[in-house]
Write the structure tokens for this entry.
Amino acid sequence: MADPLLPTIDDRIDLYLALWNALGEEAFTVDSLRRGDVDDRDVPWASLAERDLRDRLETLVALGLLDWQGDDRYRVRLTPADSLDTWLEHTATRTSALYDAVEAAAADRDDEEAVADERDVVQFQGETFLRTTVSPELTFEDVAGDLTELLGQASDHDAAALCAPADEADHVQRIADRLCDDEAMADRQGPDCFEKVTTQVLGNDPDELEYRMYLARCDT
């Protein structure tokens, strides 16, 4: 009766036992099995397609019954003659390694999500725009590159706000004009081009007004 905690693996177990009976702890490859180096046509791999055979071998590796040695080479790792303690020791080591790998991957994902949460965004009319500061020394190429990188990192966003002091509005407008020009953007990787949504001037102090040019990708 199959263990309810494991997937249906009866056919994998049959393959494992056949490998043990035919080869013992001798290394083998998928090609050597398919060539028929084992002189027995009743072996379970004789009728398997290559992909099915590889899938079953990979399952046995994942279960810890086989070792993968690189270069398409496998060998039996745990044998039916080994004690339960040996099996438990080996599977405990694999479980610990798997746990560490999952923990590391989860931490990396949390870090990525934290970076995403910290992205500088602005809201306008219910839409979210990635904020991009345009300083006087930045060129069209600089801003286009920044937008490509920002939108590439934030696949859930397809709009940006070019922000600058209000007295730099003309500079922002000139850059935005080129960002919305198909020919100017044709040689660049990333969005085909942008389209202007609208502009906005914010602030209460006339000396500290902020100009925003809202752009959306025109290939979405």
In short: The longest strand covers residues 194-202. The CA atoms of residues 109 and 175 lie 35 Å apart.
